[in-house]
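Proteins fold reproducibly. Look at a concrete instance:
___
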Amino acid sequence: MDLRQYFRKIREIEAGLSDPFPVVSSLETPDGGKAGIISEIPRSIAAKMIVEGRAVLASEAERDSYRQQQQEAKAAAEKADLAKRLQVAFISERNLNSGSSRRPPGISEK
């Protein structure tokens, strides 16, 4: 393949992609590439993979499924992060009753 033609095809496909990060589905390749892996990648890389025959644009159903999985993963990560930050203090009833009469220095009872 002529290099000029190769890069012209890449530019044409890149210009035809509307999303800044299109979702592509990988194709099986002789060097070990697995078919059906869905990824969201930059336009330039997507165009290069399409020209090289390593990927195709994902179908609408694949794109919706991928985005749903990403939202679920994000929600789970946020929940795990919130669980790390949550602080719980166990106070016994005895400490609770005795602590009410003790005040930090400088605070008076009104």
